[in-house]
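PROTEIN DESIGN WORKSHEET
SECTION A - STRUCTURE
LENGTH: 286
TOKENS:
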């Protein structure tokens, strides 16, 4: 089934929220059965917004909402357990009805192994303030109506250890169905882009993001070529650990209003390792 996509750009303090709208059991890297895809992704420094190997990021989720009888992709997300999904708080509106699509690669076709599940709870971080994006806390948990059965095409992400900080220039991958460029089309097939992490000391410099980035965020990219874009919000920043396991270190939060791939304005992600306790506590109490 084709998912029609309607895009709108929201600017907050010179940043762009990367999502389309019309209106408006935690898994660590040591847990077995997470972060190791059945179909290995093609990882190379030359990746530049390319179509992924189908189902090579099996925790990738399409968060969708209904409008006038049609379901629309609005944000990315990551499956972190059989019935919980991690996304960005700015993706969530109390006025919308949501569902998630898992095991998806190409929106234009029905694919073997894909699952569509309704949402029963939407929980934004209590400190999230949509009027103060630069404060951080742009993170949300979504509880599914029913547990999903893991398969070759649907698997949970691993999360990094609490407090983990990525080193400068570590290579990671952002994935999603966001625009291929600032004013370009949105793809039908899942894309990936190779990004180098920019440490906080660099990213917080005045000619980069300055005071708009906090230590509870991750910057990645900023080369003027590759970045996340509209429709990628809430999706994962995937980084390979020393054990060969993929961890979701970031949740796509914002980018520059000057363009998705603006030089020295890297994509900014909520740093997942700053929220381990919140994620565990929220899941346990809901």
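SECTION B - SEQUENCE
RESIDUE ASSIGNMENT:
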């Amino acid at each position: 089934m084709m998912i029609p996509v309607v895009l709108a750009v929201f600017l907050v303090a010179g940043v762009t929220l990367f999502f389309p709208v019309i209106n408006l059991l935690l898994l660590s890297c040591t847990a077995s059965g997470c972060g190791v895809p059945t179909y290995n992704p093609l990882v190379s420094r030359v990746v530049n917004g390319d179509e992924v190997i189908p189902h090579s990021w099996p925790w990738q989720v399409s968060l969708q909402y209904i409008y006038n009888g049609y379901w629309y992709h609005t944000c990315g997300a990551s499956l972190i357990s059989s019935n919980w999904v991690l996304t960005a708080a700015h993706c969530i509106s109390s006025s919308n009805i949501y569902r998630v699509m898992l095991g998806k690669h190409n929106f234009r076709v029905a694919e073997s192994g894909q699952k569509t599940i309704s949402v029963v709870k939407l929980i934004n971080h209590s400190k999230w303030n949509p009027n103060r994006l630069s404060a951080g806390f742009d993170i949300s948990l979504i509880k599914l109506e029913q547990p999903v059965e893991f398969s070759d095409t649907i698997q949970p992400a691993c999360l990094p250890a609490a407090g983990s900080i990525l080193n400068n220039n570590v290579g990671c991958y952002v994935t999603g169905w966001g625009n291929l460029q600032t004013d370009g089309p949105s793809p039908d097939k899942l894309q990936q882009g190779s990004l180098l992490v920019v440490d906080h000391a660099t990213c917080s410099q005045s000619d980069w993001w300055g005071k708009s980035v906090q230590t509870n965020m991750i910057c990645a990219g900023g080369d003027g070529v590759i970045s996340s874009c509209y429709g990628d919000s809430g999706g994962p920043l995937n980084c390979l650990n020393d054990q060969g396991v993929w961890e979701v270190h970031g949740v796509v939060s914002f980018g520059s209003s000057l363009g998705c791939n603006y030089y020295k304005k890297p994509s900014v992600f909520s740093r997942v390792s700053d929220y381990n306790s919140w994620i565990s506590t929220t899941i346990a109490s809901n």
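SECTION C - NOTES
Residues 276-284 form the longest helix (9 residues).
Confidence is low (pLDDT under 50) at residues 1-26.
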